[in-house]
């Protein structure tokens, strides 16, 4: 399930961060880190079928007390 704040990889190879869910499983607003060489970020609507993968982050403590 895709939630706000989740990092994704688009089928174009670009990375993005979901900013808003317009309709779950259909469309999202995302900050897209463009691969055009200048490291620009654009905010755009993406469709669910444009997503190649979703990154899952797991937090691990650096040390336990």
Number of helices: 0
Number of DSSP strand runs: 5
- Helix-strand category: mainly beta
Oligomer: single chain
**What is the element string, with H for helices and E for strands?**
EEEEE
Number of domains: 1
Label the overall shape. Answer: globular
Amount of beta strand? over 45%
Helix proportion: under 10%
Detail the poorly predicted runs. none
Widest beta sheet: strand line-up: 4-3-2-1-5
Based on CA atoms alone, the radius of gyration comes out at 14 Å
Sheet with the most strands? 5 strands, antiparallel
State the end-to-end distance.
33 Å
Average pLDDT, all residues: 90
Write up this protein.
The protein is mainly β. It has one domain (7-54). The protein is built from no helices and five strands. Strands 4-3-2-1-5 form a five-stranded antiparallel β-sheet, with no helix packed on it. Strand 1 (7-10) and strand 2 (15-23) form a beta hairpin. It is globular.
Question: Key terms for this structure?
Answer:
single chain, 65 residues, mainly beta, five-stranded antiparallel β-sheet, 5 strands, globular
